[in-house]
Amino acid sequence: MTDAAAPDRIRAETAAPPAAPVPKGARIGAGRGARLARKAGDRAGRLGRFVWSGWAGLAALALLAALWQAGHEAYGAFILPAPLDTLVAARGVLADADAWAVLGQTSWRAVAGFGLAAVAGTLAGIAAGYSPATLRLARPLLTVSLGVPPIAWIVLAMIWFGASDATVAATILIAATPVVFVGAAEGVATRDRGLDAMAEAFGAGPVRRFLAVASRQMASHLFPALALALGTSFKVAVMAELLANAGGIGGELARARALLDIALALAWVLLAVAALIVVEYGLIRPLRAEVERWREAAEPWGVKR
Predict the structure, then answer these.
(1) CA-to-CA separations, 196 to 185, 223, 240, in angstroms, rounded
(2) Running DSSP on this structure, what letter comes out for residue 283?
(3) Is the same domain home to 198 and 281?
(4) Total number of domains constituting the chain
(5) Is residue 145 in a domain?
(6) Each residue's pLDDT tens digit, 182-207
């Protein structure tokens, strides 16, 4: 009996002591760290796919440059300078420190007007989307506001505010707000009311139902409208500066027109478009990717395996 029990006694004596229990705070911290690491990895993946998708945009720009070069060879440098000549002129413009101030002035005016239009159009569109009667009343007003050309609003704003930033901001607000309004209103009005009713049945309040259900469906209509409104903001800003003699890129275009310098005019146009691209792909597109990350599950490379 003693010899048979000896191996068991030896194993019991040499066995490792039981591990100490992990404190609850440590477990919570480890789980939180894992979630943060997973979120950081997801954002890095979306950023990588966003950067990789830029190749399609570069291909489109290369096609545009090829057509531009063909137009230059067909009509000559006085009508349409070559793309390389325009890039050289743009580099010369950027070599001047004052040019950066001009570019920043126009960009700030466009972004400020766009921000006002985005906030006003989104809030009004959400209210109209939840009220069909309001949406029906707003449609004739949208037709009128969209039918009036921006140059008419510029003339009126010049009379009201003079050659100032308020002229540019007011014109952008009037021209871009209807576009955002339509996107927000259509997104809310066409939402899946079944999902909304299901969320209400589970006890979700109006605010939570909007944030979790309606806003995500509205985003598919709102973000294209925001991109269109941003482009409108830059176009209207340059046009208002040109007509109101309010400086900025519009003022530089007026100077290039007086000098009959086509390359300089195209260089400023190119810089305005570059500023638009920077704002869109630095603000609108990343925000849309963050808000609509749930759509990745519907894409072949977004399915969790």
Answers:
(1) 16, 21, 43
(2) I
(3) yes
(4) 2
(5) yes
(6) 999 988 888 877 887 888 788 878 78
